[in-house]
Structures
1.
Amino acid sequence: MSELQVFDEAGQALSKPTNDVGIITSQMNKLDIMFERWDTVPDLPEDADQETILEAYKDSISKLNDSYGFELVDVAILSPDNPNKDSIRQQFNFEHTHSDFEIRFFVEGSGLFYFHINDKVYVLLCEKGDLISVPSKVSHWFDMGVNPDFKLIRFFPSVEGWVADKTGSDIATRLPDMDAFAA
């Protein structure tokens, strides 16, 4: 179940966690972050690859592309048995920004987004069926936990795909990681 909690920059909780999709959506909208719950394809095979997933969601992908003009759509698939999971986790688990607007849709599994805005950190656990935007120039990071397990459709406005601009902040070390947050 999706969950949102707000922290200060030192990692102290400023709110209780909420699973209320209406509250999460409203809070994210106030930050110009899109959060939506989408229906998922019910009969998607467990071993579905990128091609299968993109075909299954082609209508939804087309609608987002029509609205935002994305040039690259791909699927990130990560499982706990991936031998590179630790290095992949570190690629995203530091505060950074992007020059472009991006969207993520969770086909399976979960991940934790952190949005650092106005001296607060909004920690949002996204799960199957969640669609989340990452606005341009908003400081954020993503943690997938020690045993990542997800299938995630990623939407990029340019063919370069994921390009991070590091902020240089160590704030990601002061907030609970995905495993602590989900515990």
Note: Residues 3-182 form a domain with the Jelly Rolls fold (CATH 2.60.120.10).
2.
Amino acid sequence: MSNLINVNSVIKLNLPKIRQLTDAQITALEQTAEALHTDVVQEQVFPRDTGNLQNESTFLDRSESKHGKVSIVSSTPYARRLYFHPEYHFQTGENPNARGKWYTDWLPGGKEADFAAKAFKEIYRRLTGV
């Protein structure tokens, strides 16, 4: 004779709460990208002549945020050339740390590599209380 035990359980999903947490992820992702852009600007690493590149022409593209992707886009025709040519002699009057590859400090291996993860965690906690 075998001793079989029947176990029943009921799982109720709190769908509104799940939706709230999912929406908070999207909002936290967008706010993290905004915080990153602000931090880069405050570190004064963008090449700057008129301020157009770092201000008006660099913006957050949120169009894919529901799929877990946001982009910080610089739309000027010269942004790519400046970014990928750190050997240029950048003016440092307005931004004393101006250079090419201005996001390097925030990429893996950079001194601010954990910035985005920390910011997302803090923002998500603030939004959800979790």
Note: The chain has a mean pLDDT of 94.
3.
Amino acid sequence: MPTNITTRRFVLREFRPADRAQFLAYQTDPAFTIFHDDNELEAANANNVFQLFLEWQQQTPRQNYQLAICMGSDDAILIGSCGVRMQGCRDGEAIFGIELARPYWGRFGYAQEASAALIGWAFATLDLSTLIADTAFGNAAVARLAEAAGFVRTHADDKQWWRLSRPAWNDARLQPQRTLP
């Protein structure tokens, strides 16, 4: 059954083949790629990643979920993507990630709203105990997003690593909501 998560402003849904052009456009935008490695900058790489997202939908049992973030009023307008990937992780753990196309960075809590929806879904539906995330050094906005969601920085190597337990998520949800600047 396809995954479809609705928020106040967005629909997080399975990628469709028709999303490919919008995905490639934002993935290859030079402003978007400032925190990416050189091997991630080419259209061929973005195309391969998009194809992988479509293939994950066919997994049995499903280990990875990468969802399109679309404007709720028109789920054909792709503004980014978010995912939970259990493959290669310990039981009960998954890697969490989110990205928005450059025109949507810093816009009215967009990443915060989409993240909260996916995190809540992952803990409830996939029965996870922990989410793990990484952020590039210098990406202060994503570090603030991680902290606002309740993630705790655990260590750093070539990236900063974060961890969010289900109890910490539940505690964070009980706190007054603060929209990131």
Note: The chain has one domain: 4-174.
